[in-house]
Amino acid sequence: MSETRPAKTNRLTPLPTARGEVSGALVDVLVREPGGATPPVGRSLREADPYGEDLQLALYMCYELHYQSFSGVDDGWEWDPDLLRVRQALERRFLDALRSDATTHDDPDAALAGLLVEPADGAGVSHYLRDEGELWQLREYIAHRSLYQLKEADPHVWVIPRLRGRAKAAMAAVEYDEFGAGRGERVHAELFADLMTDLALDPTYNHYLDATSARMLTVVNMMSLLGLHRALRGALVGHFATVEITSSPASDRLAQALRRLGAGEAAVFFYTEHVEADAVHEQVVRHGVIDELLKREPGLAADVAFGVDASVLLEDRLAEELLGAWREGRSSLRVPL
Q1: What contacts 80, CB < 8 A, 6 or more positions away?
Q2: Per-residue pLDDT averaged across 111-121, rounded?
Q3: Which residues make Cβ contacts (< 8 Å) with residue 150, sequence separation at least 6?
Q4: In principle, which of 23, 122, 277, 305 could form an S-S bond with 18, CB 3.0–4.6 Å?
């Protein structure tokens, strides 16, 4: 690893570089004070690919106003009614596409069944990195995932006030672990920043936003979309269950990849921490959250299944893009490291 490692920082990153008319109009507006003209995106938005670079970056910027935001952006934009109408239109395009393309099951147990058994001939990103990946590919993967991992648990917290009884308690217990069980240095986002530093990557929040593709943005945008809308609480629980079920075995493979490629203990620790913790979390989410939620609200079963299906679809598409690039010997990032 490099001897020069960037320190952790809380500085805000600037607005990203636009990727089309919709995101360009949004960038132009967000540098002004709220209350001005609505971004002129009507026709461009209607014609934009719901999974494309332009729409997904615009949606990411809208959502980021609810997290850390960007440098030079007035806090008043978070709840500006004109901007919220634009965000709503972006969300409808994205959600409609997801419901059309991802909906496979209407029963959560059926949706989760395929995730509970590890395939003998797995061929995903973590398998590739464990068995044959190179260090530059591993570093690219971590740069991609930083958009997710540095806000990993944040959107899931939004579901807690929408749950009751044992489901609320179980969800809060899992999130307590995600946030370090009361220890700031053990917050999982902080542990991921340590991993990035160990791999000589910049751990600044959103540092790699310009470098990551729309397929990574869809993964992060989906969890923000599900988290921000009470009506999608069932889908968020399905998404969260998918994350916890798939995390433990994938984390074990990634820890092996890091060791094979000579990463330091800080990098390895992030994934070894998740192997045991997420194996426990899986059981808590499935039985304590999903089962209890559906006892109170059985009508949400199809939404929970949709959350699982949509998560699998978007992660599979991201894996296809990364592996396709790496097997051709080229960078998977828009801006190579």
Answers
A1: 34, 35
A2: 80
A3: 189, 192, 193, 203, 205, 206
A4: 23
| Mean pLDDT (whole number) for 201-215 | 97
CB–CB of 148/188 below 8 Å?
no
Q: How far is the C-alpha of 230 from the C-alpha of 207, rounded, in Å? A: 30
The answer to whether 144 touches 208, Cβ cutoff 8 Å, is yes
Separation between Cα atoms, residue 207 and residue 9, nearest integer Å: 11
CA distance 108 to 302: 7
CA distance 233 to 163: 8
pTM for this predicted structure: 0.93
* Buried b / exposed e along 147-175 (16+ C-beta atoms within 10 A): bbbbbbbbbbebbeebbeebbbebbebbb
Mean pLDDT for 169-190 is 86
pLDDT category of residue 80 using cuts at 50, 70 and 90 = very high
Helix (H, G, I), strand (E, B) or coil at 29: helix
Structure tokens at 165: 């009884």
Q: Residue 281 corresponds to which tokens in the numbers above?
A: 């979390």
Q: How many CA atoms lie within 13 A of 285 on its CB side?
A: 30
Q: What is the mean pLDDT of the chain?
A: 91
